[in-house]
Amino acid sequence: MRILTDEVGGATGDVDDLPALYRPPSLPWLRVNMVSTLDGAANGDSGKSGSINNDADKRVFRALRAQTDAIVVGAGTARTEGYRVAPVPLVVVSRRGEVPEQLRDAPTGSVLLLTCAQSPGLGEGRDLLGAENVVVAGEDQVDLARARTLLVERGFASLLSEGGPHLLRDLLAAGVVDELCLTWVPRVIGGVHPRILEGDGVDVPLRLALLLEEGDTLIGRWFTR
Questions:
Q1: What is the DSSP secondary-structure string of 59-116?
Q2: Confidence bin at 177 (pLDDT 50/70/90)
Q3: Would you list the domain boundaries of the chain?
Q4: What is the CATH number that goes with domain 71-156?
Q5: pLDDT tens track for 16-48
Q6: Contact in structure between 22 and 177 (CB atoms under 8 Å)
Q7: Is 218 helix (H, G, I), strand (E, B) or coil?
Q8: What is the reported pTM?
Q9: What are the pLDDT digits (tens) for 104-148?
């Protein structure tokens, strides 16, 4: 893997320490990690991002997970991608308060539910995960700005969201994203697939902090401020 641009550290050339390149510049920090084909697809024919990513993307994925305090993911993405318990807590975001089936019997504290006060599944979520592992932010919609504050107060200063596209759009609209990590895999697949953002339009300016290349794959970090 080779550094093309590093606006933070000023390095160029071969990568010596991938985790160091991805350390948050300050805390608290919320980053989102996504993957896309060159024609904008965020998943492949299986409906999963794993059908388009590659080894270079997986190494960055592991580096990001290794330095986060909690992983924030939409309930739909957790179901589709088959999320399991991770080394750090999974924070599942669901306005309806739905805990994906494969996470319902997770060890206590390994899965948190982030939902709203009017969620129809609030009671069941508390029964499944324990009341202390259900984070309520907002009345009839999940208030993501409030949610970030509550998660940081729990000690999750370094947050990593892995989408999906609707959650990424909502996080950007709420102004709580500090960094977007994006891998472009050298493929075009056509067809009908989600982009990395889905939902109502947003317009968020970003600045390039890091650009890596490996075997025609481009991997970047963009900061929102």
A1: HHHHHHHHT-SEEEEEHHHHHHHT----SS-EEEE-TT-PPPGGGTTPPTTSEEEEE-
A2: very high
A3: 1-8+26-69+159-225, 71-156
A4: 3.40.430.10
A5: 899 999 999 999 999 999 999 999 999 999 999
A6: no
A7: strand
A8: 0.95
A9: 999 999 999 999 999 999 999 999 999 999 999 999 999 999 999
With tokens 């650009």, the residue in question is 211
The structure tokens listed for 154 are 């729990």
Q: Do domains 1-8+26-69+159-225 and 71-156 have the same CATH topology?
A: yes
How would CATH label the architecture of 1-8+26-69+159-225? 3-Layer(aba) Sandwich (3.40)
Q: How far is residue 106 from each of residues 6, 90, 139, measured CA to CA in Å?
A: 39, 10, 27
DSSP character string of 113-139: EEE-TT-TTHHHHHHHH-GGGEEE-SS
